[in-house]
Batch of 4 targets.
Target 1
Amino acid sequence: MRFPRLTIFRILIISVTLLYLTFNTKTFRNAGLFLTGKSKYNKCFIDPRTDSKIISTKDGPEMAALIEKECALVDPSVRDDCVIPNVVHLTIGRKFRFENYLSVKSIHDIIKPDMIFVHGDVFPMENELFARAIKEFKLELVLSRKGDTVYNITVTKGEHMSDIVRMETLIRYGGMYFDLDVFVLKDMKPFLKKENEFVIGYQNKESHFGLNNGLMLSKRCSRFMIWWYRNYQTMNPKDWDYHSVKLPLKLYDMNPANVLAVDKELLSDWHNLPMFQKKYDPEFWKDVRAIHSFYRPYRTLMEKNKKVVDFETVKDIDNNFGRWARFILYGGPPL
């Protein structure tokens, strides 16, 4: 029996497609990529590489309109049936230091995400440590917009640009975001549950200072994140941390629905330089899953004392940071 050429061609296309889906579903096995409804946006996760070239050219008003359009198409029942995708998003600028390498290694080795996406409008490709990280941790570079506008507001500080890009990224794609000075000490599995739509850590809960946007885990089109993002229409670029830290806590206090705010498990405290220098206390660290280290003051202190922190010198640093670093680099007893 002979088949027409067109039929044979169709059979071949279908076979190749099925093989592709078989192997690639494994890559996103925990991301729920193929859980779809009627709309193409009814997915637990969307690969950011699919539209990075388009997104990189958009300004603030265009991005805000796109987010509203995409999230309006999401079926709430589909979102409720999703878990937070086991993928990680990072943002980067022109520098990549030793502490950034430690951060990425801890994410890769301990969380074991299906993918690690690095978003940026520029990448430090000449940086040897960054090139090493790309190869070792199979980082996927995603061209993003700069984040220099949000709605109709011009943004000038690099930190604020990163704040905006990370929010847009989590809302549109879903997953976990970590600043590049976050050190992961335990996996995030307890948070990746259907009932958790958005997870964030307090920044100094005792003083009720804020919620820290350096560690966030979110389903696509999280209702809290959309509400928070819309409030950027009133952003004052001269204010350092109101919209990124203080505002989300105010919103949470108004309506904590769809948010899991945690304290010690996702540890964040800007005034933590003494914590770096203390000797290791196993009782304190036993419940900590990740720490936003706010590494900059410690780096400044070490530079002031003309001390270099690298793969060799960290072997002999006798404080909390030295313990974290050796655990991340070489393994050993659980922290």
Target 2
Amino acid sequence: MNNLYQDGETIRPPDAQKTLEWIAALSSADLDYDLSQDGGQWVIHVPASQADAAHAEIDAFERENAGWPPREVKPRRRHVQYRNWAAFWAVYLILLVYRLLGPYDGANHLSRAGAADAARILDGEWWRLVTANTLHADLEHLLMNAIFLFILGNAVCRAFGAGLGLFMMLLTGVLGNAAEALILQPHRTGIGSSTVCFGALGLITMYQMVDNYMNFRSWKSVWDRVWIPLGAGMALFALTGTGLRSDVAAHAFGFAAGLLISLPVSYYGTYWIHRSGQVALAVISALVPLLAWWMAYVVA
């Protein structure tokens, strides 16, 4: 094509794709232009009277289309070993304890030895940090926690693997009860696996936050996706967290423990733990409650 604007402004696009984009922008703004080739490179020529408008139009086009097309997002691979029986065994444990001991009864020596009595925990009876999470006041209390434990436990084990997921849930219950004993009045006594449920919720909430930020590098993407576990938390709190017998502080401490435990694991991923490690942590997660109840039995 002949250059009709030899005395005008010369614009050199970096490549053929930009040439097409820029002449489209000039055409949409009803600006005149001409094309020529110089050493195999396309050159855009515009009249001198329209040079400023042409540069402004191209600059506006580039600003509006910055970051387009978006980069392909490749979600981080998790390399976890998950089996759907993992959360089931956590539920089975609390059902078994209820079957053997029934509803919590302060007159029952074994039940009393397993409750989270803050004063006794501070005196060194560590097993209560574990056993209290398996005791329940009545059947309604048990079933509500069993449902949420299964749902949230599945989510945690899918995110972190069966063994690591169970172990982290166990830790949230221990830390939640320990924080309550240390921070609040020593005469408090708590029971129920809702502390673990809220801990699992904290684990999966932080996992979602970190994972979405690492994948999309945008805080907006974090909020766009984290409202789902937060909404589940509000539902859980509405159903179990505000009753007269509910231990609201333990729920809050469990949730906070879940957030803190999940942060480093979610950030660094689970690449460092192999199948054998997942199995080992699953075994530890099963043995710790058994050992804790053995200690309670000896004391009772």
Target 3
Amino acid sequence: MPQLFNTFGYYLKMMRALLSGFFRFGLGVILLLLVGFKGIAQNQEPFILGGALQQGSVIVHTPKIEHFAGTHPIGFELNLQKQTTGTQYWQQLYRYPRFGLSLTYFQYQNPVLGQSWAFSPYLSLPVLQKNNSAVYFRFGTGLAYLSNRYNFEQNPTNNVISNNINAVIQTRLEYTRKISAHLGLLTAVGLNHYSNGGDTKPNLGLNIATATVGLNYYHQPALQFKTQPKPPLTQKNFVFINTSVGVKQRAENDLNKYIVNSIAVGTLRRLNQKSTLALALEGFYDPSLFPRRGWDPRVPAGTKPDIRRASLTGGHELNFGNLALGTHVGWYIYRPYKADAGTFQRLEIKWQFHKNLYLAGGLKLHDLIKADIFEYRLGVRI
């Protein structure tokens, strides 16, 4: 009976953390689910069911987490994929990729980290295809529940995870080979990244290198791919304005949550069906910078630093129909209070849900590896 209550308490804790996480990462979750379920739910295209075992190794990406060296999680993955067949022109541009939804479990074999569950929509792009074998590059992002988080008294050495609910980014290179009409073998190597994006500190992040072996079931063995005529680009130049919001914690000794905002005005240049270039002026207001004045000798006593910032931001968007994967770099051209790096990077998923409106969610970083904040963006494009 005590074991039953302990099990019930564990799942109650997990559900409470999930609800909390939905409030923190709600827009990103809704965006990913809409894209993922829209891709899977179209019954006219074939689907693939998969199951796999995974062996992992925690990557020590900073000396601060050397105590996790030698941690080798084991786990499994279940996934459902939709094979595109060319119902839209962009699908043939990418040689008929697959959309998928995955559920991934890891037991870390380390009492500090515990175990994790991750749910992630993803896209698999063909790299090489020959007869019954193929190589795919897979990319996905979603939500993860990790059972053990940082606690000053009960779990002080877990400096990688401070929230039970985190974002997860998964990439991997897959080799598949059909062994019968309906069955195929899968082997893969990949990288999983877990982080809360600066929402709570400490947040050094958890990176896991993975090796995977599994089976796929193909419900429709013989595929017929369609060829669509190339549609014309009716408009190549666009002007946009957008605004973003995010929540962050400055440091583990400051428990306050700070709301960070930005606004951007810029232009887009559509090069072709796949690629779009972006250039923008962006302004930021980050009140988490204010507390730094208490120990910064550059700030005179009794004064407040000017924390306003402006940047020139450029980037590229890789288009998949109404979905785009953006990579951006920004240079602060106005930064009177120099509290961190002079440049930033942004990885973003954008959904053009209307001709003139889009939603986006992404991670803003400094120095490539330091997560600054998760941003949720609403924009207008004309």
Target 4
Amino acid sequence: MAAKKLRRAQLSQETCERLTRYQITTCQDFLCLSLLELMKVTGQSYYEVQKLLCKVSRACAPKMQTAYEMKLSKSVNPSSAFLSTTLHSLDRVLHGGVPCGSLTEITSPPGCGKTQFCIMLSVLATLPVSMGGLDGAVIYIDTESAFSAERLIEIAASRFPSYYDSDEKLLCMTRSIHLYRELTCCSVLKRIMSLEEEIILKRVKLIIIDSVASVVRKEF
């Protein structure tokens, strides 16, 4: 949330423009400065800067949610709690599928099909909710240049032939999967830090990094 742009923190346009001149564009940039530094760059009083700090802090802080509210939301709509893998034995072990709103790590020896599994999850996430999907977009960060668009289409067409019954539907599905090739740890981290706005604008429901181990292995 600290990567949220200041223009989305409900600051005035004049204040945002002034801060931009000092390369202060995100909530993190703003909150890392002292009160005196903020008074200098904004040209505002101590009291006004304190109000700005409160506003920016509220804008980037996650909304508080009680355990009861979390349980209630999942009880009302159980399907939103998991993304089914459509592999019944695996879904049973995972108690419903890949849990939404959390981080899941997939590990195995080389050549066991982790990339194929990630590609399949990408297809599943774009499916309508009525078919067990998330009806959203996917961000796929490829660190090994292993992603194959041909394989993506092949999996979609073979697993769901009645739904993907035309080239137009397959093309629409591919438009929902946004691929980034990042080959270093630094570029992966930079990409992750810049995703917040894209997640909101593109209705992203799944983010895949394939894989973390490959960039770490190359650099460390």
